[in-house]
Design a protein that fits this description.
The protein is built from 11 helices and 12 strands. The chain is an alpha/beta fold and 358 residues long. It has one domain: Metallo-beta-lactamase, Chain A, CATH 3.60.15.10. α1 runs antiparallel to α4, α2 packs antiparallel against α3 and α9 runs parallel beside α10. The protein starts with a helix and ends in an 11-residue tail after the last strand.
Length: 358
């Protein structure tokens, strides 16, 4: 049913195609579905993502009915699959907006940095803020019903969402974040339910059925590292023996690399890395992570519209294909493949022999 609704939305959106781009949203959608994610990506996959990137790169595209319809259709696809299918083994990883990821296993659904769009006000919904590019209320309700655990790395609006977090907390789902996130919503009745786990060095913190290692670091605002936002990196081990790593917006690799070295010495593994893979206030360690753990990299932070100035094609916003190519040279052992909105990739077997978090 959700596929039928998606096609109907995209057919309607065809009426609102951008005048200087003849490719319809339906054509783009079909091309992406026909070229599913692989490692390495196929030529057809590259062409499909580049065409989608070119369409989104039209200035202010996120304000158009066509782009909003495409995004909501992609979200519907992910939610529909989560509601109707469950992998018999391994991981199924979905990409939503920007750094937002869903991880599904036979036993659990995990959200990472769940956010619905470029709205910035952490105390209002996108509708109240006047932002068109967002999920529907029905989609948020479905998302909150599906997710068992939600991890947030830091309190910035492109990694966190008031409406989604509220929906999760009010359903008594487990929300994990920083002290800053809990303080941000201190006046909300559900804020005290947000877990703020301590830093760990390989033993891991038990959170429900998960084993979680945490690095408390920062997204630094200056080169001297005197100002910044608290940012957690997480290594999440699921009951099925897989582990997923995200650094959030940790933007200096010095402390992160030392922490990852200690975890490796303790026998931890990283099967998949999701979210941002870049650094801009200190040394980058993408190549070192590949040498140490060889994870499959599913790069995030693509088409973060908050990073694109009004009237510009890209600004500081990366396209889906560009996000993958930025780390391709570093991810020589583990590989990289970018996912666009609503897409997923299955990982049936652990990519490393070590068991994370033990």
């Amino acid at each position: 049913m959700f596929r039928v609704l998606c096609f109907a939305l995209l057919l309607l959106a065809n009426v609102y195609c951008f005048a200087d781009n003849a490719t319809s949203p339906e054509d783009l959608w079909q091309a992406v579905l026909a070229a599913s994610p692989t490692v390495p990506p196929t030529p057809a996959r590259k062409a499909a993502l580049q065409a989608l990137d070119d369409w989104i790169a039209i200035p202010n595209s996120e304000e158009t009915d066509a782009c909003v319809a495409y995004y909501r259709c992609a979200v519907d696809r992910a939610l529909g699959l989560l509601e109707t299918e469950r992998p018999e083994r391994g991981l199924r990883i979905f990409q939503l907006y920007s750094s937002s990821v869903l991880i599904q296993t036979p036993s659990v659904v995990i959200g990472i940095d769940l956010d619905q769009g470029p709205n910035e006000d952490m105390h209002r919904t996108p509708g109240e803020e006047g932002v068109a590019f967002c999920m529907t209320e029905e989609q948020i309700a479905r998302l909150a019903a599906l997710v068992d655990y939600a991890f947030h790395t830091h309190e910035h609006g492109d990694h966190l969402d008031y409406q989604i977090t509220k929906a999760l907390a009010e359903r008594d789902k487990t929300v994990i974040g920083t002290e800053g996130i809990r303080a941000l919503w201190a006046e909300e009745p559900w804020a005290q339910s947000i877990l703020t786990p301590p830093q760990t060095l390989g033993r891991g913190e038990k959170i429900g059925t998960l084993t979680v290692n945490v690095l408390r670091d920062h997204q630094w605002s200056d080169e001297a590292h005197t100002r910044g936002t608290e940012n957690n990196a997480y290594l999440i081990a699921v009951p099925e023996g897989f582990s997923v790593f995200t650094k959030g917006d940790t933007n200096c690799g010095l402390r992160l690399y030392g922490w990852l070295q200690l975890l490796a010495e303790k026998g931890c593994a990283v099967d998949v890395m999701v979210g941002s893979a870049i650094y801009w206030r200190g040394p980058g360690i993408a190549r070192q992570i590949d040498v140490l753990y060889a994870p499959l990299v599913l790069p995030g932070h693509a088409w973060e519209f908050g990073h694109r100035p009004d009237g510009e094609a890209r600004g500081n916003a990366m396209g889906f294909w560009q996000a993958g190519m930025l780390v391709k040279g570093a991810a020589k052992q583990g590989g990289v493949t970018p996912l666009s909105w609503g897409e997923f990739i299955d990982i049936p077997e652990p990519r490393n022999s070590k068991k994370a978090g033990l």
